[in-house]
Design a protein that fits this description.
The structure is a homotetramer. With about 200 residues, chain A is mainly α. Helices cover about 75% and strands about 0% of the residues of chain A. In chain A, helix 7 crosses helix 8. Chain A is elongated and about 65 Å long. The N and C termini of chain A lie far apart (about 70 Å). Chains A and B meet through helix 7, helix 8, helix 9, helix 10 and helix 11 of A and helix 7, helix 8, helix 9, helix 10 and helix 11 of B. Chain D binds a DNA duplex (21 and 21 nucleotides) through helix 3.
DNA sequence: CATGAATGAGCATTCATTCAT
DNA sequence: AATGAATGAATGCTCATTCAT
């Protein structure tokens, strides 16, 4: 039943299809993309897709699932936990923005549907937002506890961080040139701004 | 030719249609929405829509245009210019988030397409992002000049502000309960965090 | 009821509409032409047409009727009756081909429908083919009787004449350049060929 | 790529569709005929048609192409070249009228559109009129040269011949009963009339 | 498993016709 | 009588999905 070699072949084919789907979805959007578009991109026949996925929508689910699979335990993040708080924010922004840019194509493919389709929305929110949020919240709470951060509401801080990241991606997708030029230095800028604020410090 | 009464009737009908379209688009997304859906929602016949709009896509353009029409010169913002810098951020966040929530339905209707359709993307970016950005940039630059803000790059600060706002809207649309509960107090929280930072101040 | 001035106004308007219809029908064909096309061409509103004609098809009937109205008793033809037989053919071809070229626009408009619509076909055939045919037949029969023509079957001769004329119009509509260049001299050529034949005569 | 068996299946299906299309077009005309009509007539589904033809108009092109395919090199005609001139005309009329009657259905299907659509008109004229015309012209010119025909302009003679044939078909389509009854003997009648003329000969 | 021809439900759009003004 | 906005039935075409090979 679960011949491991068979399983591997199946997974390879699934990935081949999902790769193709992500590319064309990102290019044309979900609905304007036809199954034939995907099949051509994958170099296979239309019907073959249905041997691996129930239907077109299932491809979105598949893409989403892979997005979260990629979201391995963020080792780098965990390492950041031990360092300086400000540095932690740098690492966080850096990591998240990097991940997003990597998966930007896929994100662009599914975000529109996420906004609309309840099931997708919930899946996306839970696996992609909430999970990270919980982790960050506990970190922030801990640092507040330790006095490394002002007594802020961790949940709100985390929303701020996440909103900023996803917002930046949106602006980026929209072709904002400033972001295009400064994408690399944004993490540090954001961390500084957020941690130290924009208020002029003594001596500036 | 341009009988003002006729013109008013025409505009009224156009708005009636765009209202209906925004509602259904927001609910089901652009492509899954049928012209019939919109016509039913507007209480008119299918064909009538085509007396006022070229095609289905034209409805999106129409919705976008109205979004920017609503974007009158933000008087409140201009008033904020004279006050305290931190207060300016409060006003800014408050104003933008208010506007967004008002137009959330419309935004939800067009955002997905904006991400994909180049023409729409450019229109949206220019009329909805760039215009505000320019204004904010000059304000930030002036305050940096005056020493009211640290010597930051205005363009980046503005991207941060705008990304945060649109990001929050996205999280909100996704049904984030924390945001739902605290939407009203977010502007002040954001302004504080951004201006003063999260670093513990002396005496905290 | 039948106020003669009213009647005249009505007829004028009907003709205005039929003129417009014939022009656009000839240009685009019956089905691709919209009522709006006709209204624009006539410089009136769509609805006005329906005050004068039952429906779109009725316009075809109207055009056809006018075609046959134009087909007044062909005086020239009648005059030809008294002359030489060969000359009669010249006059006949000349008259018919002239009429056709005049009404070519209208003919082009209705011929396609005539080929298909039974009612139209019969109307057209009876009023436009048969009437002339009967007249010509009796002339031919008389000339055969008098020995001015070989003992041919008048009905067949007449079909030959009429087929030639309508066939020439078709070739002409199709853009045949030879016909374009020689249209004027065709009647005499046809009459000669038909009456004297192509067989070399003594001494040629 | 071009598997011959596949190719044969494809052609068979194309012909099946074109057959159906020709039938319904002839019956109802091009525009009133729906794709569904054709599909039903062919006993297939609507969508299948689009696997073989770009669009509805393409079906007309297809029908026209087949008409000209049928127009093989007219062997019979070539044989006529060697015989008596008058006999050549008999063969010519016979051959052309036979062909036309065979393809009458198809002709009726496309002729209306030919009159209107420029592309179709040109295709039809070139492939269906001009080709035959050129051949006939050279024959006539040769016979004039040899003194077998009066010194007539070959181009005009050929137009006369072709116009007569197509005109007869039109009258036939219109339901002329005389033609219906005498269709078989028309070729000889036409050839006689044309070659020998209607002028009474010595001794008649 | 892979294929791709066949399917037919579904939709954007058109346009003849109506009718209130 | 003239208008032209409103109507909604009708249709060409698309495309997700099925299934015989």
């Amino acid at each position: 039943m679960t011949d491991p070699i068979q399983q591997q072949l199946i997974n390879a084919r699934k990935n081949q299809i999902l790769d193709a789907a992500a590319i064309v979805f990102a290019e044309k959007g979900f609905h304007p993309t036809t199954i034939r578009d995907i099949a051509r991109q994958a170099g296979i026949a239309d019907g073959t897709i249905y041997n691996y996925f129930e239907n077109k929508f299932d491809l979105l689910i598949g893409i989403l699932s892979r997005l979260t699979e990629l979201e391995q335990l963020p080792d780098e993040l965990l390492q950041g936990l031990r360092g300086d708080v400000q540095e932690f924010f740098v690492v966080t922004f850096d990591h998240r923005m990097g991940r997003l840019k990597e998966g930007a194509e896929m994100l662009q493919a599914i975000l529109p549907q996420v906004l609309i389709h309840p099931e997708l929305r919930e899946r996306f929110y839970r696996q992609y937002v909430e999970r990270i949020a919980t982790m960050l919240e506990s970190y922030v709470a801990a640092q507040v506890e330790r006095g490394q951060l002002r007594p802020v509401e961790p949940k709100l801080v985390v929303r701020l961080v996440q909103a900023t990241i996803v917002g930046l991606l949106l602006l980026h997708i929209m072709g904002d040139e400033t972001l295009e030029r400064n994408w690399e230095q944004m993490p540090r800028f954001l961390a500084d701004a957020l941690f130290a604020g924009l208020r002029p410090r003594d001596g500036e």
